[in-house]
Amino acid sequence: MGPALSAPLRQDDHVAKRHRNPATHPCPCGTGQPYPDCCGKLHRGQADAATAEALMRSRYSAYAIGDTAYLLRSWHTSTRPTHLHPEPGQRWTRLDILHTERGGLLDTTGTVTFQAHYRQAGRPATLTEHSRFTRENGRWVYLDAQPD
Question: What pTM did the predictor assign?
Answer without folding.
Answer: 0.85
